[in-house]
Amino acid sequence: MKSNDRNFIKRLKRQEEDALEYVVDHYLPLVKGVVYKVLTPLQQESLLEECMNDVFLSIWENIDQFKGDAIDFRKWVCVIAKYKAIDYYRKAGKSMEVSSEHTGLLVEDSVEEALIQIENHEELLQLINRLDAMDREIFMMKFFLGVKTEDIAARFGLTRAAIDNRIYRGKKKLQQQAMDMKLGGSLV
Amino acid sequence: MKDIYKLLNDVQLDENEFVELEVSDIEKAQMKKQLKQRITKKKKRGNWWGQFAVASLLIGLSGTILGFTFPAQAGSIPIVRDIFKFIDGDRAAFYENYKEFSTAIGLSDESKGIEITMNDAIYDGETMTVTMAIKSKKTLGDQPIFRHTASFKDVDGGTFGLQIKKVDDFNYVGILTAGSFGQASKDMVNFIWKVDKIFIEETNKVINGNWRFAFSIDATEQHTQVVNQSIEQDGVKVTVKQITKTPMSVIVYVKEQIEQQVSEEWDSISLQYSMKDDVGNVYEGESLGGYGEPDDPGVMNTGKTFEKLDERATTLTIVPQLRMLKASANPSEKTESVNALGESVISNATTEVADYKEMTLEPIVIELEK
Description:
The complex is a heterodimer. By secondary structure, chain A is mainly alpha-helical.
């Protein structure tokens, strides 16, 4: 049996390789669009390929975490692509020795960068898991997906100030929890 | 705890943000091929023993190498074979034939309790690739960053890349590539490499040391076929000038000419090309960089190294693809950031991608000389 638009998610979950081929055939243009938008300014061809590759591998390895139908799947793919691309961007920026005119692309302010610098995503994730659903989504958008505050505000129908406020309070909460977890003062 | 991929499930991003880009069949095939390699390797490597065996063999290797200074013996230690592939595991196919034609180097230098040993090197007339083993008394973390300078004697400029991979807390392997496209001698190079700082990310610690290497290496055999076939489209001309076959790779030499009108319209134009043959192989490649021509700013001479050709192939198809990018910069905004070595870096402007376009040119089909 071959994968088609009705069964590919099921087949992915069963780790049938042809389902991964189906996903590459149908979602590569989208993944490429997302990854290129973020990483093209770095002008490192190999990074683009590696990142796209990583996106598909993550889909394959984490398909059990996915819930929903083909429409949800499309969204999930976009979000993973964005998450990975930004992760690559940050890592590349970190290891670049020579100053690049593009380094400013995603940098908003140092406190937020510091939050991301928490060595282990796992730890940040543990903390984020303690927030309520809405704050959690705001934090995911802000820190893992690089969404601008204005756009987050639009998404929730709130003002920019309200989002900033929630982020501020959320950060305080995280900071407190980080200290409880003995992560030290790496948040400030 | 919710896994990051589960959390990403709940995030709703603006759909309009996502734009699809054109993808060729070659790109799809290449992606599938690489993914399959990664998946099967993971399956095979699934057992704990596999990793343990590699690790302990490498400990054995770095332990043994101390005692030898004779290149022949260093080179004959079987695990060295794997450094080319081990390091660049996802693209192992690219390094398929490298070990076979490489020369054993067997040079070591120690500083601050960290010993670096050069194992095997190979030079194809454009790129020198050398593998190394690093043994440290204290751990260097998961991904140590080396500050290094590499050069070919009597050659100005070049491109250099270093990849380091952890084997265990005290052992690392690395692969260094160095090239000076179109400038170094095709027959032989004198190579010099220095490392002065190693940065451990986890602890923010910098180790200042002094590791130096110098050796010369003869190029592998090369066979050049003059091609001079062009394709011209929308103000862009791409010429495949020649292809050079070596025992482990094939190097494609390309000249790109971009009309002023096109280059003025975009901030950045980059040319990529993929290569396939008539028996169904898609080749993986690595760009070599390029050089311009002082009299003609629209001209770039570039090169790309691909994995070894299938002997059954009679034609090669090269598909050039252009990526054009317009950036919107905000020059008044300066940003300061700190790089991996704790040095401050000031960048001039914040940049965002304002427009992006891709254009695939007609393929260039080359009849291979037998």
